[in-house]
Amino acid sequence: MSTSGIVVSSGIAFGQSRILHQHSTELDYQLLPLSKVKAEQIKLSHAIEQVLQLLQSGLHRLEADCDNYQLIEADILLLEDEELTHQLLTSIGEQQFTASVAVKRVFAQQANQMLAMEDPYLANRAEDVLCLGSRLIAAINGSIEHDLENLTYPTILLATDLTPAEFATLPLDKINGIVLKTGGLTSHTAILARSAGIPALLSCDFDEALTNNQQIALDALSGYLHINPDQEVINRLERIGSEDKLRKSRLQKFKDLPTETRDKHQVSLLANVGSLSEISHLSDVGADGIGLFRTEFMLMNASQMPSEDVQYGLYCDAVQLLDGKTFTIRTFDIGADKELPCLSLPQEVNPALGFRGARYSLVHTDLLKSQLKAILRAANHGPIRLMFPMINQVEELDLLFKMIEECKTELIDEERGFGELSYGIVVETPSAVLNLASMLPLLDFISIGTNDLTQYAMAADRTNPDLTKIYPSLSPSILKLIKMTIDTAKEANIPVSLCGELASNPLVAPILIGMGIDELSVNLNSLLELKSTICNNELAAYIKCSEEALLIQRIDELNHYVSHCY
Predict the structure, then answer these.
(1) Dihedral of CA 400/401/403/404: which sign?
(2) Per the annotation, does 145 bind a ligand?
(3) What is the pLDDT of residue 120?
(4) What is the mean pLDDT of residues 102-113?
(5) Looking at the predicted structure, is the pLDDT value of residue 185 above 80?
(6) Whole-angstrom Cα distance, residue 223 to residue 10?
(7) Neighbours of 410 (CB within 10 A)
(8) Residue 300's closest CA among 463, 74, 497, 103?
(9) What average pLDDT does the segment 336-353 reach?
(10) 3-state DSSP call for residue 171?
């Protein structure tokens, strides 16, 4: 039996199934007899300790600067909150609720308070809080799946969903693959799975009858989950997996080679990263630097905003690690689907169309100025490129550059040194494409963000897997918008980068190069394969393919053409 899903981290994996249930235990809402109140409070305290031990054990396995550390830390801080514990114990003692009902009610109240703060990021964090509550209820009822730590066999983990904090507690050395019923290419779980190099399928509606300890074969190359596969399937996937591993090992020869076509046309291959730990692995794949440093990753589940000095230290560490290589920082891309509980935004019906990116920063100037000053100070120690997300109009750039000058004045008054920056924007809306000519005189480079450009051009939520199947990132309209952007920038002699998921597709990247893209910024695991593809032909061939691709008017025909172009 097999079912399909979206490949978010490629590879072939085998293992026994392990299902993380959502803990939908039936709750008993009958009031407790007074004689049982104390015992129920003790049961709650033991459950809190048990979950805390699991979280702290996961925390100890991580480095403090990795993506997952603060995700676990946020859950620990919540469980150690004395006010929360008091609420829970009072709910049992005065209202005579069972421990499970008390947790259900109090954690729901906590989540609702986050939603009431009208912050779309906290809406996502509210889901994490409810998930933590479910884990606590499971511990109370003696059904918490705490033995994941003690896995002794290769495992394929299956769940409806997996929060970043839960991902951070996984024993990754035993997890061969991950399959979720929810999520898509750009979800946080997808980013974490790719970073960890674990084959993963998302939006995979596996059978509810699936049980633990069944044999699973995960084909995260073609996008299939095989349950109790027969020997023929196993042999085929083992062969494909061996070929894939051999192919990846052969890619190592490209690590120290220049990224250029056969006729010596050079392209810069950069990395999309979100932490110092990822930056330290740039040399493993021969990246030319960083094309996108997602600074908002430092905020995910942080209990408070990092100060200017904390940010300054982080950026300086990155500059030192890069040792002169390209370092492109994107200012906080806040809004839409990201979880940042340390901030507060007005609740919006359509957050992707609301206060996000530079829009948010221009309203919350203290946050932006703190970041700008930290980056300006770090630029005194090495070259930094700064780019702003969600820019649509030149007036927005005017306000941003005015703020930069104010920051420079403040740093002079504070007798703090600063360096000069190169400036760019992320082109991710049709408006930015159409208004680009008016903004280019203020810019040193641009980067095309195809994830959001597709979302806004197609009017299709990129977090909705049903829509991403209908409107993939590769479509005739998106290619035309990319070409318009490149042509406009080239007329002004402004270099063009592309940092969306489209850049990681080795079938599409040569077409982008044929259009005139100067840089591609991709996740680290895609970089060597991309380099091998770029080096495999001459620029003239890529130009010809791009010209032919731009004439195609149907999505299915375009995808067929791309897969047979070379």
Answers:
(1) positive
(2) no
(3) 43
(4) 86
(5) no
(6) 9
(7) 15
(8) 74
(9) 60
(10) coil
Mean pLDDT confidence for 70-81: 82
Beta strand extents in 236-330 (DSSP E only) = 268-273, 289-294, 326-330
pLDDT number for residue 2: 84
Provide the CATH number for the domain formed by 265-563 in this structure. 3.20.20.60
Tokens read off for 117: 């703060």
Q: In what order do the strands lie in the sheet with 11-20?
A: 2-4, 224-227, 215-220, 11-20, 155-159, 175-180, 200-202, 6-9
Position of tokens 């930015």? 432
452 assigned ligand-binding residue: yes
- CATH 6.10.250.3280 assigned to 155-249: no
Q: Where are the domains of the chain?
A: 22-141, 155-249, 265-563
Whether residue 372 contacts residue 411, with contact meaning beta carbons closer than 8 Å, is answered with no
Structure tokens at 490: 């080239």
Q: Tell me if 140 sits within 8 A of 43, measured CB to CB.
A: yes
Angle (CA) 394 396 399, round 5°: 115
Contact 42, 131 (CB under 8 A): no
> CA–CA separation, 114 vs 105, rounded Å?
14
Q: Which residues are catalytic?
A: 188, 499
Q: Which residues of 416-426 are buried (b: 16+ CB within 10 A; e: fewer)?
A: eebeebbbbbb
Known binder of ligand: residue 294? yes
Do the Cβ atoms of 473 and 454 come closer than 8 Å? yes
Fold of 22-141: Enzyme I; Chain A, domain 2 (1.10.274)
pTM comes to 0.65
Amino acid at 297: F
